[in-house]
Amino acid sequence: MGESKKRTELYELGEFRLIDRITEPFKSPKHNETVFGTGDDAAVISAGNDECYVVTTDLLLEGIHFDLTYFPLKHLGYKSVIVNLSDVYAMNAEPTQITVSIGLSKRFCAEDIDELYSGIKLACDRYNVDLVGGDTSSSMTGLTISVTAIGKAKKDEIVYRSGARVNDLVCVTGNVGAAYMGLQLLEREKRIFESNKTAKPKLEGYDYILERHLKPEARKSVIAALKEAGIKPTSMIDVSDGLSSEILHICKNSNVGCRIYLEKIPIDEQTAKMAEELNIDVHTAALNGGEDYELLFTVPLEKHDAVESIEGVRIVGHIVEPSLGAFLVPPAGEDIKITAQGWNALKKE
C-alpha cells in the first residue's frame, strides 16, 4: 500500500494562508478586463473608457458571525450590506449595486424574512445602492447570508493595499474596538440570561458600542472628504479583522514596515469603560477586536495638515523601511512587534 496522503488541518493554515493557497492557481487572469483579481478588498474589472467595476463578496453564517439570540433581523440585514459596502469604499470606489443570497431553515417564517429585507432596503436607501438579484435556498443549519457588492470608479482613482511608501502617514477613521466590546457585552448578558431566565439585560449607558456591533456604518463621508481635499490615499483597507491584521496586510502587500503609536489609536469612552468593567485590556480590543469597518489608509507626508483637518480621521503612525518591521510604539518601554491576533474564522476549537 502507498503512503497515506498528508492531511493539513485548516486551523494550521489560518484564514489568510488558506486564501493564498486557494487563489494561487488563479493569479494569471484569462481576460484583459480583469484588472486585479484576489488579494485586496475587492476585485477590479475594466468597464471601458478608463472606468472600472469593483466586486466584493462576504458570507455571514449563523452561529459564526451572528447570534440571533440578541441580533435583530432588521439590524442583521442592514449589517450584511454594510460589511460589503465598506470593502467597496476601501478601494476608493462608489457602491452602486448588490445581490443578496440567503439560506433558510424551516424555523423562519415569511415575516422574519420581511424583517431581514427591511434592513437590507434601509441600507440600500441610505447608501444609494440598488438590489439587483440574488438567490434563496433551504438550509439545515440556520440562516446564511451572502452579499455581493458592485461599485465603480475611474481606473486611476482605485486604491489598493500595495501602494504604501516609506514616510507615508498611517491614518484611521473613527475609533476601533467598540464593536468588539459591544459583542462582549451582549455575550455577557446572554450568559446571565441562560443561567437565570428572569434576569433583565443591563445595557444602559452602552448604546454606542452596541450600535457599532449590531448596526455599523461604512465610511462614505470620509471618502468624500478625502476627494474634496484632493487627497488620494497611497494604500487603503477596511478594518474588519482588527487593526493589527489590517496594517500587516498593508505592510505585506506594499513591502514596507510601520510604526503605530499606541497612545494615538482612537478609542471611544464607552469602549474603555466596558473593557475596564470586563477586565479586558482596551488596546488589545482596539487592535484585535475586528468588525469596526473603519478605514485604515496611508497618505504622503506632505498631506499631513490636509488629512489632519478632516473630521473623523486620526494619524496613528507612519511607514518605514521593510527591514525595520511592523511595531507598536508605547508611551514608555520597548517597541512591541505587531502580530495578527484578530478574527480567525478557522481557529482550532
Describe the structure.
- The chain has helices at residues 10-23, 73-90, 110-126, 178-195, 207-214, 220-228, 243-254, 269-277, 282-288, 304-308, and strands at residues 34-36, 43-48, 51-61, 94-104, 130-138, 144-154, 169-173, 235-239, 257-261, 294-299, 313-320, 326-329, 336-337.
- The protein folds into two domains: 31-157, 60s Ribosomal Protein L30, Chain: A (2-Layer Sandwich); 169-337, Phosphoribosyl-aminoimidazole Synthetase, Chain A, domain 2 (Alpha-Beta Complex), CATH 3.90.650.
- The protein is built from ten helices and 13 strands.
Report low-confidence residues grouped into runs of 5 or more.
Answer: none
CATH topology of the largest domain, which one? Answer: Phosphoribosyl-aminoimidazole Synthetase, Chain A, domain 2
Number of domains: 2
First-residue to last-residue Cα separation: 33 Å
**Which overall shape is indicated by the principal axes computed on the Cα atoms?**
globular
**How many alpha or pi helices?**
10
The first-level CATH class name of the largest domain:
Alpha Beta
Strand order of the largest sheet: 8-10-7-11-9-12-13
- What is the architecture of the largest domain at the second tier of CATH? Alpha-Beta Complex
Could you tell me the radius of gyration in angstroms?
21 Å
Structural class: alpha+beta
**Main sheet record:** 7 strands, mixed
Instruction: Kindly state the percentage of residues in helix.
Output: 25-40%
Function: Catalyzes the ATP-dependent phosphorylation of thiamine-monophosphate (TMP) to form thiamine-pyrophosphate (TPP), the active form of vitamin B1.
Keywords: ATP-binding, Kinase, Magnesium, Metal-binding, Nucleotide-binding, Thiamine biosynthesis, Transferase
Binding site for Mg(2+) 3: 41, 87, 238
Binding site for Mg(2+) 2: 58, 87
